[in-house]
Design brief:
The protein has helices at residues 15-24, 60-68, 79-92, and strands at residues 28-31, 38-42, 45-51, 73-76. The protein has 98 residues and is α+β, with helices and mostly antiparallel strands. It has one domain (5-92): Trna Endonuclease, Chain: A, domain 1 (3-Layer(aba) Sandwich). Strand 2 and strand 3 form a beta hairpin. Helix 1 (15-24) runs parallel beside helix 3. The protein is globular. The termini are far apart. 20% of the residues are buried.
């Protein structure tokens, strides 16, 4: 079984709207299954995000990964969360590598 176990290909219903909001704001977005739902790029930086329903909880595997991961991890529950994330990402923008 993969990272998501028996729920491997199940996507949260709010994911399409969140992805659309991120892309409309100029971010690159790729959907994936593991270790999180989205790979996001902007301004020469890469982020990973997990999409959860308003009251959704991380699985045990996800929580364990996020505790040990030394990079950026964001949980997005709504389009408003996505737009707040966009503001944070834009504030960190740096030039892409040459």
């Amino acid at each position: 079984m993969g990272f998501r176990g028996q729920y491997r290909n199940k996507r949260d219903a709010n994911e399409p709207a969140i992805v659309e909001a991120l892309r409309a704001a100029g971010l690159s977005v790729v959907s994936m299954d593991t270790p999180a739902d989205l790979l996001i790029g902007y301004g020469g930086r890469t982020y990973i995000a997990e999409v959860k329903a308003a009251k959704g909880k991380l699985t045990k595997s996800q929580a364990a990964f996020y505790v040990t991961w030394q990079g950026n991890v964001t949980v997005l529950r709504s389009v408003d969360d996505a737009l707040a994330f966009v503001k944070e990402v834009r504030a960190e923008k740096r030039s892409p590598p040459e």
